[in-house]
Amino acid sequence: MNDERLTVARTADGTDGPPPEPERPEQPERSPRRKRRGPGPVTLLVLPALVTVTGVAAFLALGGLPNPWPDDSDAKPSAGVDIDPSYVPWLRKAASACTVLEPSVLAAQIDQLSGWSDDSDELSGQKGIAAFTDDEWRTWGKDDDGNGKSSPRDPADAIMALGRRDCSLAKQVTELRTEGRINGDLVELTLAAYATGPDAVTEAGRVPAQAQTYLDEVQALRPRYEALDREDPAGAGGPAGALLTAPVSPLTVTSPFGSRQHPLTGVTKLHTGVDFAAPQGAQVVAARRGRVVFAALTSAYGNRIVIDHGTIQGKRVETTYSHLSSLDVAVGQSVDAGAPIGRVGSTGLSTGPHLHFEVILDGYYTDPGPWLTA
Length: 374
Known about the structure:
- By secondary structure, the protein is α+β, with helices and mostly antiparallel strands.
- It contains 8 helices and 12 strands.
């Protein structure tokens, strides 16, 4: 498929800095040789200014005007999810590897470990948002997003690696609790094992004291991300990055996202989406509520539809549907998740009936796999 790009306009605004503090004007020298019958022009300007400055200073010392933007530092965490929406499908996919984990637990761990920053800790050697050392990465790291490189600095790879590590720990503490060697909540025991190791948990028979601070910090952060644990029922506008509705059913992948040799041109390049096997004329539906921004015949993609799902936390999400045999929607039309939009075909550069499906996040192609529900 052609590696076409959809661009998204960005805006940026700036704010002015604080105004300079007023300078106290100097008093003019008085001449003993001259008499004035009344206040001169300098006095008329200086004296009111001095009175005003003194009055304002006293007013502010007493508390000044009430702040129209109250301090939210003691407020409860927001119910929304304020993270990069491209991370959300990976958090859900990583947590699905075992029953003990929830996406909110992984998100809270990353928040506690790095604050979602990928800076390195020079002293500990930890890298990326999940704070993996090189030795730890050799054990848990993989190229999960298929971009050809396994790196702790790749957020998708790091999230999946943390999920694998946590699930391995969850399995160990579950077995220990089944054997009666430890007691406690499995999530708390898993987090404790992450902080101090399974041996320390086994020795204590519960969450060891040295793991309690880490456990408390993660549990305190978890309410911020509880929205991740709730599914968006129809992809109709739930939490940012909610999973998408399957565009065809069943989802049978014949060519995944990633680098490949094109079957017709022989050129090796990025396969910008996923190919799903489907018979000629099978129904294709919208993966999420949105507006059709393109619906026409192209040379490479054949009949192609692009749906704009709006801006989610500053990033625009679009999905595309290509090689269709028919276009059942028009540009400007609004569609709901699951609404029919066209039929499977083999138009354009295609070797047979299938759906080429893409997810475009803020103008860049991303792997559709983690975004889709089966």
